[in-house]
Design a protein that fits this description.
The complex is a heterodimer of chains A (about 550) and B (about 425). Chain A is an alpha/beta fold and about 550 residues long. Chain A folds into 4 domains: about 110 residues, ATPase, nucleotide binding domain (Nucleotidyltransferase, domain 5); about 110 residues, Rossmann fold; about 160 residues, Nucleotidyltransferase, domain 5; about 100 residues, no CATH class. Chain A is built from 17 helices and 27 strands. Chain A has a 6-stranded mixed sheet, sandwiched between helices. In chain A, strands 13, 14, 15, 18, 21 and 22 form a 6-stranded mixed sheet that branches. In chain A, strands 25-24-23-27-26 form a 5-stranded antiparallel sheet, covered by helices on one side. Chain A starts with a strand and ends with a helix. With about 425 residues, chain B is α/β, with parallel strands linked by helices. Chain B has 2 domains: about 325 residues, 3-Layer(aba) Sandwich (Arginase, Chain A), CATH 3.40.800.20; about 100 residues, no CATH class. In chain B, helix 1 packs across helix 9, helix 7 runs parallel beside helix 8 and helix 8 runs parallel beside helix 9. Chain B is globular and about 65 Å long. Chain B starts with 6 loop residues before the first strand and ends with a strand. The chains are: A alpha/beta (about 550), B alpha/beta (about 425). The interface between A and B is large, with 42 and 46 residues.
Amino acid sequence: MILGIDVGGTHTDAVLLDNFAVRRKAKVITNQKDLLDSLLKVTEEILGDDGPELLDRVVLSTTMSTNAIVQGNTSRVAMILAGGPGLSSEMLAINDDTHLVSGYVNHRGIEAAPVHRGEVERIRTELRDKGINHLGVVGKFSTRDPKIETDIADILKNDFSHISLGHRMSGNLNFPRRIATTYLNAAIWDTYNSFIKNITRFVGRFTTGLPIYILKADGGTFEISQSAKCPVQTILSGPAASIMGILSLTDCPDDAIALDIGGTTTDIAIFAGGVPLLEPLGVTIKGHKTLIRGLRTKSIGIGGDSVVSVEKGELSVGPERRGPAAAFGGPAATPTDAMIVLGHTDIGDSGKARAAIAGLAEALGRSPEETAQAIFERTCNDIVTAVQEMIREINNEPVYTVHEMLEGKQISPSVLFVVGGPAEPMAPHLGDRLGCRAEIPPNAEVANAIGAALARTTTELTVLADTEKEQLTIVEEGVQQPIPASFTREDALDICRKRLRERAISMGGREEDLEIEITEDQSFNMVRGYYTAGRNIRIKAQVKPGLIALSGKDADR
Amino acid sequence: MKKQKRTGLIFFPAFDWAISPTHPEREERLLYTQDQVFEEGLLDLDNITEFKPGLATVDDINRIHICVPDAESVITESHLISAGGAITAADKVMQGHVDNAFALVRPPGHHAMRIVHGARGFCNINIEAIMVEYIRRKYGHRRIAIIDTDCHHGDGSQDIFWHDPDTLYISIHQDGRTLYPGSGFSDELGGPNAVGYTINIPLPPHTSDEGFLFVLDNLILPIIDEFKPDLVINSAGQDNHYTDPITNMNFSAQGYALLNDRLSPDIAVLEGGYSIESALPYVNVGIILAMAGIDYSSVREPDYDPDAIRQSAQISRYIEQEVSEIHELWKTREARRAEVIQGAGFLRRRRNIYYDTDGIQEEQVETVRVCDDCGGLLTIDSQASTGNRIFAVVVPGQSCPACRKKGEQFFDSMGTGPYHHAYFQDRDRDIYLVK
């Protein structure tokens, strides 16, 4: 059986899954000061008298990294940037401990200026004096050739407890995002590593050899010891857990919308042909745009507990939340109260709900029922507008080939999945307005924990071949090797698939779960004068975010 | 620190389109530019927004071109996208989504003339001209200045705006005696009804940043000030760069950034530029930053050495002299117009036009009605080596009633005679007829 746990901001949820069937579920209040305590409590509750020997694996989604960043519980990090010409250095510095050094490679990964050893050594002295132990080293175009980063790291490798290198974070281009990602990775390194050490110790008390997986922002998992190498991958796994949960609880091969309507916010995600969409470049956390692959979500400040106010005769909902709904003793009228007045739900104290709505009704000069209806419609409309806006953004994303431009693939959802407190009363109305069939998945209240439990191991890999330079680069692994001038796109595809498979297995993936997809496949003639001098080949592949396969024994049942 | 602007970027590298596999206008052309723009993270900047290009329509093309036998036969989808990209740039600026916009699209267009029998200088249709007429049609802006900073004379744009006194067309380029298309001399000043509104500034080979910026500061900007355009458009070729393989100039990424900063175009549209690895990535980053009002002083090519490419004192003197001569031509344009017209009612020019890309030869006789009130009714008799012979009646934009009436009568009464087709084009009323 699989134990899935999602440590969320408010609740910690756990499910025990026998293949895809929920055997038990549990929910405890999250202890923000001690996440390990929450884990312990929820595990005790769900296992009851049973021992851990019935578990095949544990999958964990935690707010650990997210909280560390959002609350500033991070280590002081020095950044060494080798950017060469381009944006001004003031725009690149991420903190006061950022140092710019000479040395850079160009867009083809050709060294344009070397690292200056003396310069790096002077910085070492300065950082040593300041007592900084964590270092990030980032070069412009280091994903084309990591040499500059590794040269700098070689000089400094004995002076820091940890060095994060930019090219290991992602194979994608974007120097400022690479800087932010590398910085965050180094900044949460200590916090994260001590957290997983505690988890490993905690689990080790019950059992040995139980695989533990951690959920990433892209809705995939990796084995806990692998996560130690790149903790920044674990940020923002919460929304990913919910989306993967919805994916597992439904069986929908079409374009679909997923809504998680909470107390304060509503999270929107989109599935294209049954596959959750990823952020084009990477997720954003506390104002830092990163290269961390993450599921594409849009969060809006509207939820069941949003404050409803009247200004100049106009109703508005959210984005503020002042407490629970009036029906639960909160200070202001909320959409939840409106739904109680309308009889859509019978939770809470309906008298308090009615009183709160009546206050607004007076200001509007309408009856409480009319006012409740207006609030309900406003809430639904605001959510619908945000969903439509998100779909429009996705459909208007630029493409760079004539073929894609003319093909003009457009997302057109036909199904709406809704989870969260007000899902029941709101789903049919939202579905009507969006022209979608509305569904509320079973076990929706623990969708996040189920999503974590069933998510497969994901990863991606970028392979670049420059046959003029006769060089192959496996970006995320920092590997470079010679190739013959006759190297072809097919050769690159083969290598990419093979190395991606190996990478996924080493991260804890199972052979049967590796649904590999080529996400970029380009090959360009490089011409000198009027003759072809070589080919510039760019291949990117991923293990798609998705669910683990049924295990053989269970599938037969 | 200067004020930032909201800049729109329409990026369409057409990674699956080429004239031929080793042609300079091929798939790879904007690859390294894309790499550099992405790696610099420019699209993440709050004041830079990327927009997907729309598709231009055949109507947009027919508003400005006479395509033989029709638009569908002389274009590919890629041309509709690059013209559509320019139009999207215009829409975003006109509708106030952004302060300015750069259409970084291909294929280019500034060698495409009014009559199109095929491709010239890698161009089939003139994407700026299509955009300009779209703007006039949709938003009503009349006075437009196009500054063509491509290294090659923009003979197509010149042809299209030759008779249009509402379009100030200024081309700055390598001297036509040393480079394709061999035209663009300072005495090419526009048709009889628009004398002075075409300005050609041929520069000697090896002109560097100093020369370009001197021309900008001392000639182009003062003339623009006087013309008072509603919009300034940079027809932004990037082949003046010191590494360009098919030209001989010494302009740099810094120079391009400075030029765009000072010119401050509302819209820039990419034209040529074939040093795809050594120039375009840096030139484009420089232009984008300059348009967005972001510090571009650290943008430079890895091998940039200003002293090694600086123009000679002789070139500087030559340019100073030329600038003062051309400025004089501009100031005396009214007198020149009288000299050109000399009381004639119609004026005629005969030309041979070569389509180097498609290997077509065209003979053209163009007749314009001398008119004080508009650009003048135009008729064109065009015969190409493809065997096609056509006749076109073109009523100019902002046409006076007399020119329109004469044009309508002429077209109504004419038979097709020796012509495969006769065309009637009236931009103001968006009428395009073929018989």
